[in-house]
Please model this.
Amino acid sequence: MSKVQLTEGVYCVGAIDWNIRNFHGYSTHRGTTYNAYLIIDEKIALIDTVKAPFFPELLRQIKEIVDPSKIDYIISNHVEMDHSGSLPMMLQEAGRAELITTAKFGEAGLKKHFGIDRPMIAVKEGSTLDLGKRKLAFVPIPMLHWPDSMVTYSSQDEILFSSDAFGQHLATSARFDDEVDQAVLMQEAAKYYANILMPFGHLIPGAVKKLGGLSIKTIAPDHGIIWRSDPSKIINAYAGWAAGKTANKALVIFDTMWHSTEKMAGAITDGLIGEGVEVKAYNLTASDKSDIMAEVLNSRALIIGSPTLNNGMFPSVAEFLCYLKGLKPKNKIGAVFGSYGWGGGAAKAVAAEMEQAGIQMTEPELTLKWVPTESELAQCVEFGRRIAARMNQ
Ligand code: FEO
Model:
């Protein structure tokens, strides 16, 4: 990345990770960026660093602007290593810098991750830092998405340095929202929310309310592009996602052994489409779970199918349900289907997991033996139709 100026004295000095395709289990088809921000004032502050292998890129850009030894403060908005990994090396370059982090978990987290033994300035709600012309305010946003998470606000610049919040895993040579395809941008922002922030959606309204009191011209997150043309676009999107707003959309998510459950999935999909529902069908062996979760975000119905294997559900279905439960989707109805050979067992196990995920089950499980007959496929179409009718109730 070449250094990018947000406004007079404020620079993005992060790194582009063009080729990362798996971010701790999250598929990053379009790569990502690790954004760090340098503020040049009477005092000099660096907000966050980058993932450790990208430290040379961070250092090169800082050196284009200022001698790193002149940095007065390094602010760690978030302990996770994609933003703190370069911190030990940065502290060596910026020998006199004071390290600022949250009193709640930030200080302990940085010590435990990196064995940092220098004193830190531990900040909390209401803490500020005078840089000269600017005063920075620190706003903890605990559990969005780690307990230490905070954002930093510059009222003079009306910039919110938002840490992970409002980010996207999107590597691009452009750095601002008005320079990229809006459909791609919002698709990646939604996927990011669904896979990282959705479990904490109940905390979003409080955070949005807290930030709503600030005048924000620019949102500068730690991943992806910077929102400068219309920051309200992503704030409003977060409010809607957190409220569990859905479309008239259903997902048919399944796996199959000898194509019987797949045939059921096809007939159920036909039933839903016939009732005017937007449907997407995903075979779990062929599809990525974090891509599916991006679609779960605004879907009203999740219809999950599994063949029975060894009296239980298919392993790929179990993996997906484990991921789904952890992400706590809101405002979903659900149903289950699948084929079996003799004893059965998958469908009940899937339904139990979906209930644990907070999904309201609307239909008894639809199961059939061996290979579906024509009349059984007609039952599957009806199953889809009934779910479509329940979606709007
Ligand atoms: Fe981008 Fe929670 O780290």
About this structure: Residues 78, 80, 82-83, 145-146, 164, 222-223 surround MU-OXO-diiron (CB under 6 Å). Residues 374-391 form the longest helix (18 residues).
